Amino acid sequence: MDALITMFGWAGIYGPTALGAIGSIIGCARAGQAACGAMIDVESGYGRLVGLSALPSSQIIYGIVVMFTLNRPVSVEAAPGLFAIGILCGLALMFSAMFQGACCASAITASKTKPEIFGLSAAPAAIVEGFAVFAFIFALVIAGEIPGSASG
Amino acid sequence: MSYYTLIASLPHLPTHFDVERPPISRPRLNQRLKDLDEPDAEVVQQLANFLAWDRQTLDRSEQNVIDDYERLRQEIHHPIVLEIVDNRINIRTIVSALRRRRNAQDPPRGVGQLVQPIRDRWKEPQFGLQKRYPWIEPFEQCMLNGEAVAAERHLYEFTWRLYSRMADQFQFSFEAVLLYLARWSIVDRWTSRDREAGLARFDQLLEETLGEFARLDI
Question: Are A37 and B12 in contact (CB < 8 Å)?
Answer without folding.
Answer: no
